[in-house]
């Protein structure tokens, strides 16, 4: 049990150092680093299953300590998995915001008035003149 525990513990520390690389990696290598970390986490989960079995076979006087050590490793790996998921979620949200920003920048905007009148500003101009004329007639005593 001890060699597998030491190997797994070492892998956990390696993943922690790889997590720091996520923040500094460029866009091309980011997916590779994420996949590498996820593969290591999956491998550690497999090791933890084996360690749980081995810890239950330890002598009674060592069993509790062995289970505690395995539980601590489980907690550490779950924390790493959550940290990776949070990082991926933030990255996806950031990429979506960038796509939305690019879509907005490439879109051509028109005024609301031209959209309401189907883009025919000449008709709109004539309509406004009629309205203004009728109001001025009412205001200046045409009644």
UniProtKB/TrEMBL annotation:
Keywords: Coiled coil, Golgi apparatus, Membrane, Protein transport, Transmembrane, Transmembrane helix, Transport. One of its GO terms (cellular component) is membrane. It is found in: Golgi apparatus, cis-Golgi network membrane. It is a single-pass type IV membrane protein. It comes from the Eukaryota. GO terms for molecular function: SNAP receptor activity. GO terms for biological process: protein transport; vesicle-mediated transport. Involved in transport of proteins from the cis/medial-Golgi to the trans-Golgi network. Belongs to the GOSR2 family. This is Golgi SNAP receptor complex member 2. It comes from Canis lupus familiaris (Dog).
